Amino acid sequence: MKRIALFCLLLISCPVLAQNYDEAKVPHYTLPDVLKTTSGKKIRNDEKWEKSRRPEVLRLFEDHIYGKMPTDYDSIRYALTEDDRPVMDGKAVLKQVGVTVFKKKNSVQINVVLFVPTQVKKPVPVFLLINNRGKENTDPTRVKKSEFWPAEMVIDSGFAIAAFHVSDLAPDNKDTYMTGVLQKLYPEQLKMDNGMKAIGAWAWGASRVMDYFETDKDIDAKKVIVVGHSRGGKTSLWAAAQDRRFAACVTNCSGNTGAALARRQFGERISRINTTFPHWFNNNYKKYNDKENALPVDQHMLIALVAPRPVYATNASKDLWADPRGTFLALKAAEPVYALYGIKPELPKDPPGIDKPIIGPHFGYHNREGEHNMTAYDWGNFIRFAKKF
Ligand code: GCU
């Protein structure tokens, strides 16, 4: 008896132990119908989806999870700090761009590292990484090279590659996240229960980099693929969901409140993410701690907001925390919205095996053997996917 009581106490005090990793213990759940409006109307075509249901779903995500993203600012300036410097044995040119956004005498600067291939006809498509890891991963000098952002490999395949660091927008820290774009440009957001927090601010930054791409004649701004890993992958999905200028989205190992279904309650759960990272999502989201079924949305609806644009989601076999099966099922459950645009189902009913990628044209998915990470294997598949559309 004593032992049972001790175990129960441990479960309560140590949320890690309370996570479920057993498929047999996934509760029965019903996903909200992405094609049914809140007033109960069934959506049967893309026009109705775009006019009524899509804006409604977007609002639900803003209000209950990611926060409403402000779009107003006074001006934006782009300063090229380095240009026409051939690098990578002449295969690319390095551009470092300071994107500065001004509002009421305050400003925020986003530092973009961009390599453009020299041996390809311009304008070129580009992969934009939202970098949530160390800045050395996107080293402009290439002294340090990282699989997380394999610039040489992407350049060799004919694409440009860019990155910015999340800390330019909001420090990834619960005590200081507000010191960037939030306090400087949008302090009112901090008082709103549906105001954006760090992940909203990072996604806002991706859109400002998109503003820059629209002015760069080397870049095909209609072919920008936004990429993120883990918390960055939650961000890339949110960025692509609301900014329809992004041509496609890669959401790598994004897990809970990224591409994985919340209602499965497998691996990381909402209560856990809100406790460990209270600065990522809005205040309203805290109401759903241990109440996944009360959410008016689930993450398949976030993927659906990207439709008809392509989405590639990944997992890693040892990263059960991010719920590989739940990620695949979310993609699958978004297919009915793609069908409104005449896109036939591309995904099987069940997830493919480990290292068996499914590549496009509209959906990409793989579960890589190994740990939570973004590697050259993952990027190789993103490139194959991008070449398909
Ligand atoms: C933690 C967090 C995840 C997140 C990950 C990351 O594990 O719980 O939700 O995706 O960090 O960003 O690496």
Automatic annotation (TrEMBL):
<feature type="signal peptide">
    <location>
        <begin position="1"/>
        <end position="18"/>
    </location>
</feature>
<dbReference type="InterPro" id="IPR050261">
    <property type="entry name" value="FrsA_esterase"/>
</dbReference>
<keyword id="KW-0732">Signal</keyword>
<dbReference type="InterPro" id="IPR054579">
    <property type="entry name" value="GCE-like_dom"/>
</dbReference>
<keyword id="KW-0719">Serine esterase</keyword>
<feature type="domain" description="4-O-methyl-glucuronoyl methylesterase-like">
    <location>
        <begin position="99"/>
        <end position="342"/>
    </location>
</feature>
<keyword id="KW-0378">Hydrolase</keyword>
<dbReference type="Pfam" id="PF22244">
    <property type="entry name" value="GCE_fung"/>
</dbReference>
<dbReference type="InterPro" id="IPR029058">
    <property type="entry name" value="AB_hydrolase_fold"/>
</dbReference>
<protein>
    <submittedName>
        <fullName>Acetylxylan esterase</fullName>
    </submittedName>
</protein>
